[in-house]
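Homework help thread (please don't just give me the answer)

Our assignment gives two proteins as sequence + structure token strings and asks us to describe the second one. The first is just a warm-up. Here they are:
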Amino acid sequence: MISYRHHVVSLVAVFLALAVGVVLGGGPLSELGRDAAPAAAKASAKARDAKRTASFGDTFATAAATSLYGDRLKDRPVSILTMPGADGQTVSGLAAQIEAAGGRVAGTYDAQPTLVDASQKSLVDTLGSQVMTQLDDGTVTSDAPTYDRIGQLLGLAIAGSPLAADDVSSIRQSLAGAQLMNSPGESARTPLVLVVLGKDIDEAILSGILSGLASKATGVVVADDARSGVDGELKGLRQEPVADDVATVDGADSALGQVTAVLALARSLDVQGGAFGASGSDGAVPLG
């Protein structure tokens, strides 16, 4: 028998495909082939239809969110890592959905432009090597590439395996001092990390950072807007090996996508990877 929750998730999947598909110009409400109305009238009607569909999908997802979550994040802390250029409203919306799912945001960490600036690779490499030598052998993979290594250090600062409080504080201070990442005071580390992408991040740099981060966390979900899944960072990331270790969600600039991202977080407690959203190869929303 199909459960009520599975039924609602399936409906959300349909609305996500409709809403984002129309916005991207490839949805089922396309006016192709209808020549009766002038081009301007067609475009106007299509825009109104897209807005109504997207609005209905967002309203539906928000109303159904509590049933969808099913307390799977109840009392679970989540850390948010924002990449340079991340949209503030998207971050706030995702945080609100984490709370709606019964979880809590333990802290929001802000990656700085220097971290993802290819011209600053030498600084990132030097800082990573120095901090690694201050930790016990094996805490960070000794022969890891530059951005994988710094990603592991970010993971130890945000999530990570057991580590002395002094070491965690030292890593956070070093990252802040080098203007790589700002940390929210003495926030507790968490097993789940939600990464919100920004703009124009080099694919290789992003892949390396996320690979290192994922090695130190139980679950990592990477979220971005709808366009990112079509011709942006998420599209490229989904073709990299790290896609097996982190879940990706496009459409996070909408309520529908934000609900999907939180469902992916809950899923990542047990299953890693997966591409979700209108452009996701694993479906619009996690059904598990």
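The one we have to describe:
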Amino acid sequence: MNRLTMMAMSGFSFRNQPFQFSKDAIYHVPYPYYYQAPNKTPEEVNNEVLTYIEDTVKYSSCDQVSAIVMEPILGLGGNVVPTQQFFVDLREYCNQKGIVLIFDEIQTGVGRTGCMYASDYFGVQPDIMAVSKGLGGTGFQVASILMEEKFNHMPAYYHSFTYGSNLMSCAAGVKTLEIISQPAFLENVKVQGAYIQQRLHSMKDKYDFIGDARGVGLMTGIEVVKDKLSREPDVDLTNRIKKAAFANGLIVRTSGYGKGNVVKVRPSLNITGSKSKELCDILDATLADIDSGLRAKSPKPQKTLSCSQPLV
């Protein structure tokens, strides 16, 4: 039942299609997605989302909501980064309504943003935080729930599982935290992230099909569009870029399990300056090849004859 509940919380409808379960107690709301709202300021987008949340709580839930669960940076949803003010306002709203704020930091946590947690980066403290993935360092299966003490009252038998209390995983988690919490380690994440983001922005300016480049630390990505004017997502081209990059020796992923239009650039947290440059050089060369192919296939403008030119 717990697994079905978590699946029902997913914002991707295609993931729920094979299953039949109730979502009566779960409400989905929009995320502040600034790039796809070109005629609005970030403040206007934030206000719209917050108003949507307030209306959902007021009219769809009988004004009774236990928690708001969200990723502080959308991972699978396209590497979307809200402003700090959005979280400040959301935290204030949750405090006013007595709503528990839960951050899913499975992807953002443990150094990925250049801070230990994305909540540190945004300067907002959630009530509960889910952490995994990076906590395992080199891939050990380990996860944790960080919470205020007042929530720590559930007996262990309610949330036990087969691989719980694995000593090697716990040891890997402890050592990972020890390494990543070192200031020099997190500083390198910020430095390499800044370099990669600068290179991604240069690629955005260079190629017509790159609509946006965004990220925090080493959680970065580029949004692929059919053209910069319409900003229409180009999913097919996104997957072509992923495959071409792999053929050139670079592993990247795409958003939405291949159904999204963001190429996610997520190197190892211990990446060096030379490897950051190599990563960006390969990606740039891949995009250049894609661009050349698109230009070769685009129809050439027809030459028009002037009135003075004889027809032969």
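TA reply:
I won't write it for you, but here's a hint about the kind of observation we're looking for: The chain has nine helices and eight strands.
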